[in-house]
Amino acid sequence: MAPPLVSVPMKKNKNKKPSLVLTLSAAGLLIGAGSVAYWLLSQRQLSSSDLLVGANIIPGDALFAVSLTTDPQQWQQLRQFGTRETQAELDKNLVELRDRFLTNNGYDFQKDIAPWVGNDVTIAFLAPDTASKPAPKPVTTNEDAANDQQSMVMVLPVKNPEIAKSILAQPKTLKQGKWIDRTYQGIAIKQNQGQAGENFSAALLDGRFLVITDNPKATERAIDAYKNKTSLATTGGFAENFLKIANYQPFAQFYVNVPTAAKIAAASPNRPLPAQVLAQLQNNQGLAGTMTLEPEGIRFKGVSWLNPNSQRVLAVENKAGEMQSRLPGETLMMLSGGNLQRSWGDYVLTSQGNPLSPIAPEQLRGGIKSLTNLDLDKDLLSWMKGEFSLSVIPTSSKQGSPDDFRAGLVFMVQGSDRQSAEASIKQLDDVMKNQYQFQVQPAKVADQPVVNWVSPYGTLTATHGWLDGDVAFLVVGAPITDKIVPKPNNTLASTIPFQQTVPTEPNPTNGQFFVDVERTVKNFPLPTLIPNQQTLLDATRSIGMTSAVSDSRSNIYDIFIGLKKVTNSTTLPSPGSNKGNSVK
Predict the structure, then answer these.
(1) 547, 556 in Cβ contact below 8 A?
(2) CA 63 to CA 214: how far, in whole Å?
(3) What are phi and psi of 81, to 5 degrees?
(4) Which residues pair with residue 184 across a beta bridge?
(5) Which of these, 127, 108, 106, 101, lies nearest to 1 by C-alpha position?
(6) Dihedral of the CA atoms 199, 57, 183, 219 (nearest 10)?
(7) Do 278 and 263 form a contact (C-beta atoms < 8 A)?
(8) What is the gyration radius of the CA atoms in the chain, in angstroms?
(9) How far, rounded to the nearest angstrom, does the alpha carbon of residue 433 sit from its chain's CA centroid?
(10) H or E segment and range at residue 258
(11) Could you tell me which of 65, 59, 35, 40 has the C-alpha nearest to residue 50?
């Protein structure tokens, strides 16, 4: 199978915008958009092979860049993951990209591209020039309009310069328009003559890189970045942080310019970001990651870092990793972190006033105050300075009543001041008893004291107590306290799914995440959050993540997604055969 994104798109394309959107969407799907940041592999000296391919050519203010392998075996391995449905969806995108950039332009990957292209190719999207301007200027010419559009740069490393030169010298005949030759800073450029924003250009830099763009000005910006050393490779924090996630033969690598993306989002008329949020995002400089294919799934390693000029610094405090040893093996989901008080402070700093935040800090504070009369920061978080976790544990009850809870939600936190903690918990007991008419009943589980909250209807609603003297816990929902008290013999940490899914590095860690997707989907209905969610869930076995604060200005993450496999995987449909809409 031939990868779809290594082409010389040298024809006028009237559907330029959809092709770019499709390319970006497919790239985002392949690298798991969105998605974050990862582990330091070595302390060796930085070399060009450690960086994103073409990082020395892509302009430093690029909005987004993704590098993809040209190895057909890796692409075939990717197609073996998932289900028939996910394979068909992936094939549909791959075939459309291949046909758009190769077949429709008269090129065949194995014949025309494979003999000279390197191991990886990179696609970068440049922000419009107006993103860096204080105010928009009137657009009066086609050239001005082109400059104000988002443009694409493709960097194809050349392993056989002679073949690459011959293809560039004698490109395929255009169905419309004509080729023109020009030079910029001594570099020869082959360019098709079309409408504004639809002019593809190709240039060979030092015989080592074929650079293709969809905008003449983008070609010049790439040449300037290469010659003047103002490329992504020289952007503050990029090189040293990308080294932390360098990997051998990755399937994909990516980079996101956070402040530039924030500026574009702030200028959007549909969903502008408040000035306060924009100011906070300027503290962040970049997000980068690598994606590798493993026998049982996909691994992402990534890093996020602050702007070198930012006044904000991170506290290097990695003290998590114990909660999974307090939970039973049947735990469906666990999210853990280090210092809860500090984690909350970081969340407030980056999300206050942000309409995209899942929970508004001010609303949570106000809700707790109105419901319990407790101050979130003074009464609760003040003693929650240790590791914490939030977990879902299924009940083993065989009762069939629809009113029975099928799982318990368990919150644990290591306290730093038990006396203050007990005073706050006593206040909670009083509120539940006097304001909500709950029965507050002291009890014992495995000879350890606990307190039950029983609703006016006689249903056990919650239980709280202490583990090992300094870990407070609260169980809500199903009565599963006996699964954590006493400490279980078969812990979550000792189970094969957890060990095979949750990365062991970085170590020490500042937080972990685990979800047994198969068992969760099988037993519990989940709300729909993303398109094609059920199809993706059906293809996934489990998800695990480990994170840490690398230094005062960067965070690193390691994420593994365990995937099912397609039996008897088919080959990618040939050009012109049903356009990949079905896989037999």
Answers:
(1) yes
(2) 16
(3) -85, 155
(4) 187
(5) 108
(6) 20
(7) yes
(8) 27
(9) 44
(10) helix 258-267
(11) 40
Q: pLDDT tens for residues 505-556? A: 999 999 999 999 999 998 888 888 888 888 899 999 999 999 999 999 999 9
**Would you state the structure tokens that stand for residue 421, as one six-digit string?**
């903690």
The packing angle between helices 361-372 and 340-351, to 10°, is: 130
Amino acid making up residue 500: Q
* Backbone region of residue 579 per phi and psi (left: phi > 0; alpha: psi in -120 to 50; beta: other values): left
Of 431, 423, 343, 411, which Cα lies nearest the Cα of 378? 423
Q: Tell me the CB-side half-sphere exposure of residue 447, using CA atoms within 13 A.
A: 0
* pTM to 2 decimal places: 0.83
Strands (E) across 332-405 are located at 333-337, 388-394
Residues 6+ apart with CB under 8 A from 543: 501, 513, 514, 515, 517, 559, 560, 561, 562
**368, containing H or E segment:** helix 361-372
Q: Residue 452 carries which side chain, given as an amino acid letter?
A: N
Instruction: Give the whole-angstrom CA distance, residue 239 versus residue 52.
Output: 9
State which amino acid sits at residue 137. Answer: K
Q: Under a CB-based contact definition with an 8 Å cutoff, are residues 473 and 489 in contact?
A: no
pLDDT tens, position by position, 570-579: 666 666 554 4
The residue type at 365: R
Average pLDDT, the chain: 82
Helix (H, G, I), strand (E, B) or coil at 457: coil
Three-state secondary-structure class, residue 248: coil
Percentage of the chain exceeding pLDDT 90: 54
- H-helix or E-strand spanning residue 16: helix 16-31
57 in Cβ contact with 157 (< 8 Å): no
Show the tokens assigned to 445. Answer: 């589980």
Among 286, 287, 258, CA closest to 273 = 258
CA–CA distance, 122 with 55 (Å, rounded to integer): 9
Report d(CA 169, CA 188) in Å as an integer: 10
What DSSP state is assigned to residue 158? B
Q: Which residues contact 333 (CB under 8 A, 6 or more apart)?
A: 391, 392, 514, 515, 516, 520
Cis amide prior to 508 (ω within 30 degrees): yes
* C-alpha triplet 491, 324, 421: angle, nearest 5°: 120
